[in-house]
Design goal:
Layout (H helix, E strand, L loop, with lengths): L4 E12 L5 E7 L9 E8 L2 H9 L6 E6 L9 E4 L2 E5 L4 E2 L6 E8 L2
Antiparallel strand pairs: 1-2, 1-3, 1-5, 3-4, 4-8, 5-6, 6-8, 7-8
Length: 110
């Protein structure tokens, strides 16, 4: 599966602006290195019975995203694709425990 979407992992943070004001925003998990906070990903939306089953468990999973394995992605992080923000649902899954791919279930934040 081709990984053709570049996503950036972010977390909610407060910082002080140049005028002393408090700024709250989604910032990359490595604020000084946006490239290190990013990964190439392939998206797969849930369809049919898989989507119905996720609705029954109140998870409201919209789909999955597959990235290269990395150990720094946590369930409390979010990820962005352009201006869209996605919430990670549950812990990321190390596919087949091979440290090759990471499967992330997501839902889009409105």
């Amino acid at each position: 599966m081709a990984k053709r979407h570049k996503i950036t992992f972010v977390e909610w943070d407060k910082k002080t602006g140049t005028m002393g004001e408090i700024i709250e925003d989604w910032i990359p998990i490595y604020p000084d290195n946006t490239e290190k906070s990013s990964s190439w990903a392939s998206f797969r939306d849930l369809k049919g019975s898989a989507f119905y089953a996720s609705q029954q468990t109140n998870n409201k999973i919209e789909g999955t995203v597959l990235i290269r394995y990395r150990s720094d992605v946590k369930a409390e992080h979010k990820f962005k694709l352009g201006s869209r923000v996605f919430e990670i649902v549950g812990p990321p899954v190390n596919v087949d425990e091979k440290n090759k791919d990471l499967l992330i279930r997501y839902r889009e934040k409105k």
